[in-house]
């Protein structure tokens, strides 16, 4: 650039917000692949399976209609809102008024930004989990709000200590972001804990924002909605998504459910940001939301088989993942002698050409952990496992050969 090159300073709201980790990492992996590395990516939770055939048929039928291609309403079609309300009644036992208590979104990630921009500004504080989804921090930073992390630890079952939080000054806290089943740890919260959470929010006049996209994946108990807790509608809204539960990540279909006046406030911001969801996508989402339990049973049978292979892979690098995790990932502590998840991720990438997500991207409490996605076919996971085992054998082969055979086998 020359001295006359125009330079536009970045807005101060981005001062503490970097590019999303996976945006940068995908470029790095693409460069390695372009150089012939053939990396297996087990990092991102983007379902590789297709939606149900009825969903694809609904999309195609709608898209063939000449009137389906114009702008749509900012609140989604009545049919989509009703399908979302029916889904909540059928699966969670939560009764919602489709016209006012359900707001379709272009993905729940969009909803996080809408909520932050609607309610947060400089001087406000927001409670976010550590570890937690990095977007929680990003949307708060962009809005200029003060971030207050609440610690989640393995020793505490990855649940917040609400009594410890209550002992702090919460007078400026407007929102508390919560996420169960939790990403990245796979922890599922039970109804007694969610009930305590609602009581905490009522006592401290905090709006709970519950991000709930993982409840149907590898969950051995019926999925829960925070809104099923008596009184929750007074202090909570819930984000949900078809990305994981219905293999529609790229379709960008989510929802915000909760109190009518809160959703109306969010709509004031949202209606200035988009021009509605493509009608064929809405009609396909209606078909997806009507699927029966056999859809989830088949989906989870696939993920269970994949989970076994991922657990073997983690065990091959010395990790021991905890049982009972819910969602599309397996979370595990790095073995003793390894500095942190970044070190293990870098070593596996360099030695086996397999990418695993370092837990530190989710916060300091994730530093000693690694996360592996289940969103690859069994054939790819078997290849990844073989690569890791070959790498481990290469690392330890000379040492084993130098020992007596009975020691080398132990």
Automatic annotation (TrEMBL):
Belongs to the class-I pyridoxal-phosphate-dependent aminotransferase family. This is Aminotransferase. Its cofactor is pyridoxal 5'-phosphate. Pfam families: Aminotran_1_2. Its EC number is 2.6.1.-. Residues 38-387 form the Aminotransferase class I/classII large domain. Gene3D superfamilies: Aspartate Aminotransferase, domain 1, Type I PLP-dependent aspartate aminotransferase-like (Major domain). The keyword RNA-binding does not apply. Signal peptide: none annotated. PROSITE patterns: AA_TRANSFER_CLASS_1. It comes from the Bacteria. GO terms for molecular function: transaminase activity. It comes from Hymenobacter yonginensis. Keywords: Aminotransferase, Transferase. CDD domains: AAT_like. The lineage of its organism: Bacteria, Pseudomonadati, Bacteroidota, Cytophagia, Cytophagales.
